[in-house]
Design a protein that fits this description.
The structure is a single chain. The protein is an alpha+beta fold. Helix content is 37%, strand content 22%. The chain has 15 helices and 16 strands. The chain binds histidyl-adenosine monophosphate (HAM). Histidyl-adenosine monophosphate binds at residues 81-83, 112, 114, 119-121, 124, 126, 128, 130, 257-259, 279-284, 302-304, 306, 308-309.
Amino acid sequence: MKYQAPRGTHDILPDESSLWQLIEETCREIFEIFNYREIRTPIFEATDVFTRSIGDSTDIVKKEMYTFLDRKGRSLTLRPEATAAVVRAGLENNLISPDNLAKLYYVGPMFRYERPQAGRQRQFHQAGVEVFGSVDPLLDAEVIQMSVKLFENLGLKDLEVEINSVGCKKCQPVFRAALQNYFKENIKHMCEDCKQRFELNPLRILDCKEAHCQPYIEKAPAPIDHLDAECKEHFDRVIGGLGDLGIRHKVNDRLVRGLDYYTKTAFEVVSKQLGAQNAVCGGGRYDDLVEEMGGKPTPAIGFAIGLERVVEILKAESRTPKAEHGIDLFIATMGEAARKIGYDLVAQARDKGVSADIDYQGKSLKSQMKLADRIGAHFVYIIGEEEIKKRSAVLKDMKTAEQEEIAFDDLLTDVAGGECECGCDH
Ligand code: HAM
């Protein structure tokens, strides 16, 4: 029987993991420059944490969650996103309160039972941030700027920031009524999901991807035309802030996000290099969620970047960092006594921070040399019976093919590039 990775998941193999490390390190670096601190929450949460926050009428809650009962019959769900989990953790650990500005970030896997396709997996990874405790529109602009800066640092091009406002508790009912009024004539021609959304949450209709629904959606009223004065002013100031920061952006009045908790600012960063799943980052404000999850009213904003999509773009641009892996030193040995010495030298090398290895498969000298070449060893030190007698052996530089006789005792100083006594950096 041949085992395969579950549908919609993939293995990140050693040749690709250096690219993942680079992306994750860049995210952490930028987040920390902007004064965010890391939070790690469990991979699964009580199902309620997600159903309430993300919304009953969303695709995620309706059909995409990995939900199961544990042995005591408690309903648990693999996290489909991290925002709700961070709110839960922040409230449980008193990190979130109205007068404390909490800036948190996370990097990790998320799980959604979606139909796998390019840029869409069932296990995928996000790097994201959440800030709690400020209504300042300049914070919205700064959060968007941070995502753009991150992509710039990674060298991603052809990206566009799309932004919209979905209003607040006060203006959303007015807009909902305007949408129901607009769609009531044609809803019978639209897909089953839209029919349900019409009743439950007409704003979600704007998010429908069905081709035959698009002509009706195109002309539907836009949330930004129905904002109350406060939301309108907030939106204008976010746009102004983006302008001041020099962040190129486009107002997309059809942009509604796939999760229900958003208020006011909603944004995505989209790439022209991706297909249908073109958002590399999505986020927005969610000023009511903390209260809805049992905390004191605390405004919040955040985003999450889809790391698989970033990997895809960097690969398409052939901008993958060298997958080459190498070590500093390989010790090839002939005979038991030599192996014992080699084994000790490898241990000493590692203690000094020199990456080193030795054969563990009883290979011939020729095969050991081949192995050293394959694993990209910079130097090979070759020890046999003769070498034991003289306590020195040949050190071969595999890059230049130069060879030099080095005493056992001097090997590590040589390979580790020991400091010169005169204080120069030889
Ligand atoms: P989201 O739009 O559902 O938002 O996901 C954010 C990003 O995750 C997407 O733009 C996409 O790049 C990536 N993504 C989502 N689903 C998949 C998938 N199945 N396969 C591959 N990549 C995927 C959220 O998750 C919110 N929690 C973002 C947020 C944080 N809003 C406020 N704070």
